[in-house]
Amino acid sequence: MQKLRFFKEYLIDKYGHALYRIPIDLPLGCPNRENNFGQGCIYCAEDGNRARHLKYKLDLAGQVKSGIDFVARRYGAKAPYIAYFQSFTNTHGTIEELRTFYNEVLSQADFKMVIIGTRPDCLSDEIVELLKEISAKYELWVELGVQSSNNKTLKIIRRGHDFAAVKSATKKLANAGISCAAHVILGLPGETIEDYRQTARDIAALPFKAVKLHNLLFLKNTPLAKMFADINFIPAIKPLNEYEYAQAAAEFLRLIPDDYFIMRLNTDAVEKELIAPKWWMKKGQFLDFFKKYYASGKDSPFQGVKTEDGSFSLYHPKYRQHFHTLAGARSEAEKKFVEAVDLRQILETQQNIKLLDIGFGLGYNAVAAVELAEKLKSGKLKITSLENDIQVLRASLDLFEEDSLHRTIIKSLLDSGEWQGDFAEIVLIIGDARNSVLVAKDKFDCIFMDAFSPDKNPELWTYDFIRELCGCLTRKGRIVTYSSAYPVRGAMLRCRLFVGQTDAFGRRRCGTIATFEKPADFEDLSQKELNLILKSSAGTAYRDPGLCHSVKDILKNKSRLISRLRQLGVPKWYKDA
Fold first, then answer.
1. Is the pLDDT of residue 48 over 50?
2. Where are the beta strands (DSSP E) in 413-508?
3. How far apart are the C-alpha atoms of 560 and 577, rounded to whole Å?
């Protein structure tokens, strides 16, 4: 699919305006549940994905009225409508039952289109003939639950049929002249990008006319929820966040024929029912993002996002985090680093200032420091920036205006590894910061610690790494970071630093500042916080003797250490007597 073709656009072209769906919950249930002692597919909600506004056991006429009232309030919609037989399996009944239910619903309002959701193993020849009768009076679409073409996956999710059933059903419907859409879930247990691609290829080879994509949701009170909670479950289950799902959906759709429609791109759920994934994007935001992402055709692993102060950040797929708080990338650099370390006062009172910037990333911290130095025109600021991945700088170039200082600095660092201004300069060292800090061995007046969060990037938050930083810090020097994690503060305290907090921004908790000599305005940690860090396992520091261990080993060793401490009677959380 070269260009995204949404079903809504098809409706507008054909009918002159969008048609809105009136969801119907027929009293039919699901054969898969009946054959599985009440438990069907592992992800299916107890109500069979009934529309949220429908009350349980509302009669069919009442459902139609409720649906019309809902779309009128929410969208200002008027007739005609789409009759959408949505929940459970809407062809699971006798011919007489189905004909009665369909006719009763369709007689309640002005419907131009009918969409019937069902399973590929619930379409007998007699039912297809009934559907053919409906298609003679209404535009009929059958929404067929495919989910995946991988039979191993279908078995894991307890689907109750194989992909051969999908092939048979689609050909049967096509022979009857009935339009069919494939319902597919991305993110199923054990599946990878290649599985999504193969499902797309297999669907493209069948007489479908549309696809309906669904990001896997982990809902409460489902078998999937129990599997998700079971750390020993194989294959491992990992919810897809927005960016991972966007990549998956794009890879899938690029293998779908150009004449197919997209009925839906993603889904959501009531927050109280949803365990994971918890996306920060709303459906509309994701749709806007995905359209731009798909149109760009870029396969960059880093995806740009606009933060609340108008500046841009990137999302890192490895760490599954944004580089900055979405409250404002530029503002975080200014408040959590430049202002927190009181760089203005240092620049105004010292002639030569050395700053170690750990985690250059998109450069906001270093550039904010440079801008202040160039503005004050007093003293010389020398910044040594450490960054592990040069691709981050390349990916960030498009985020900044062509003639901006920020872009100029990044281009210079990419070209030569250096940037020189009148009152500031930056030297960039690429590589693991644990090794780079040894290369950059010097005495620094300020150290910015801005790695990804300690649970994702623990190698740059260990007691051993922080002890190395202490050897690079002048007696009056200051270390600042956005992190307030107890293990990080615990490591700093055990390195005999005074540890305090800085103002909060973009996160509920405050940032952290550490120094050998406290200035007059230093805000110490509370005694309660100190007790929690030093008298419970919560403050147990990450360890990396030799500065060479893997993330997996660092996390595993910390877990073992905490277990030993607990056995020795150290509480998980310290509580005042």
1. no
2. 418-420, 424-430, 444-449, 473-481, 498-502
3. 28
C-beta atoms surrounding 534 within 10 Å: 15
* Residues listed for the chain: 577
Q: How far apart are CA 529 and CA 484, in angstroms?
A: 11
Q: Locate the domains of the chain by residue range.
A: 7-299, 329-562
pLDDT digits (tens, 9 = 90+) for 125-158: 999 999 999 999 999 999 999 999 999 999 999 9
Asked whether the CA dihedral 341, 336, 451, 571 is positive or negative, the reply is positive
Number of Cβ within a 10 Å radius of residue 5: 18
* Residue in 134, 133, 135, 79 with CA at minimum distance from that of residue 109: 79
DSSP string, 58-102: --HHHHHHHHHHHHHHHH---SSEEEEE-SS-TT-S-HHHHHHHH
β-strands 179-186, 210-215 pairing: parallel
**CA angle (568 as vertex; 567, 574 as ends), nearest 5:** 95
For the question of whether the overall pTM of this predicted structure is more than 0.70, the answer is no
Q: Within 13 Å of residue 435, how many CA atoms lie on the same side as its CB? A: 8
Tell which CATH classification among 3.40.50.300, 3.30.360.10, 3.20.20.70, 3.10.450.50 matches the domain 7-299: 3.20.20.70
d(CA 455, CA 452): 8
242 CB-side CA count, 13 A: 23
- Residues 193 and 299: their CA atoms lie apart, in Å, by 13
What whole-number distance in Å separates Cα of residue 523 and Cα of residue 546? 33
| Each residue's pLDDT tens digit, 445-480 | 999 999 999 999 999 999 999 999 999 999 999 999
Angle at 217 between CA 216 and CA 223, to 5 degrees: 100
Question: Could you tell me which residues come within 8 angstroms of residue 337 by beta carbon, excluding any fewer than 6 positions away?
Answer: 365, 368, 369, 448, 450, 480, 482
At the second CATH level, the architecture of 329-562 is: 3-Layer(aba) Sandwich (3.40)
